[in-house]
Amino acid sequence: MLEMIMLGSGSGGNACVVKNQESMILIDAGFSGAEIRRRMQMVGLEPDDLEACVITHEHGDHIKGASILSRRHKVPLLMHPATKRAGHRKFTGNERMRHFEMKEVMELGSLTVTSVPTLHDSASSTGFLVESDGACLGYLTDLGAVTEDNFLAMRKADFLVMEANHDRDMLWNGHYPPHLKARVDSRVGHLSNVDSAEFIALLAELGKLNGVMLAHLSEKNNDPDLALSIVRNRQERDLNIYLARQDQPSKPIVVETK
């Protein structure tokens, strides 16, 4: 059994638990250490039981609580070397740290985790595949465009956590300064609802996908109902579609194969 619980997702912080019956990891630690512990305890989990925390990239909404999580709960932090260099001010040097390379396959307890390079304006940005007993979870947030590597990797996914960051009209008609609008809408920015919907439809048609959670929705440039509607209306197959929230954890979602 493979299970996922989104502790929270958005510009205010990102953290996601993935577990099976023997092992548990965290993807990103973008809340304070105390908040990560609080949210894990809300769903009956403890940070002391984490096998590791894998980091997508160095932006604060993804590593805010990583240092204290590692030091207080003895959780190894796994990240690309460029991520460590870029985020060095957020670390004390007393953390338990390990590195991975792009496309590396890692055995974390009884979970198999593969890093997947993504396009984002950070030193090094990665998504992940997490596998256990034939079930596979894909995790893609903070990317401005999907690549062939992303598609080939995520074809294995039974369930996908996928960024649907903004509505393009809301972004360009909103109050962000022009340079920030251009950054968000670039190939190294964030995915729009339409782009996310297209990629999800492609995976549903050509891969194994049977469920998706829309993540990292912008509070200023998106609307949850709009994102859900756009993604749903593009699908030609029935998919279980969920929305990640910023303010509270999701219910546990069991990742099942077709």
Task: Write down the overall geometry.
Answer: globular
- Protein structure class: alpha/beta
Oligomer: single chain
Strand content: 25-35%
The CATH superfamily label reads: Ribonuclease Z/Hydroxyacylglutathione hydrolase-like
- Helix segment count? 9
**SSE topology string:** EEEHEHHEHEEEEEHEHHHEHEE
Q: How much helical structure, as a percent, in the residues?
A: 25-40%
CATH topology: Metallo-beta-lactamase, Chain A
* Largest sheet entry: 7 strands, mixed
Number of domains: 1
* End-to-end separation: 14 Å
Query: What is the number of E strands?
Result: 14
Using the CA coordinates, give the radius of gyration: 17 Å
Look at the structure and give the mean pLDDT: 97
Uncertain regions: pLDDT < 50 for 5+ in a row?
Answer: none
Short précis:
This protein has helices at residues 33-42, 60-63, 66-73, 81-86, 148-154, 168-172, 178-184, 193-206, 224-234; strands at residues 2-8, 15-19, 24-27, 52-54, 77-79, 97-99, 105-108, 111-117, 126-132, 135-140, 159-163, 211-215, 240-243, 253-255. With 258 residues, the chain is an alpha/beta fold. Strands 6-5-4-3-2-1-14 form a seven-stranded mixed beta sheet. The chain has a seven-stranded mixed beta sheet with strand order 7-8-9-10-11-12-13.
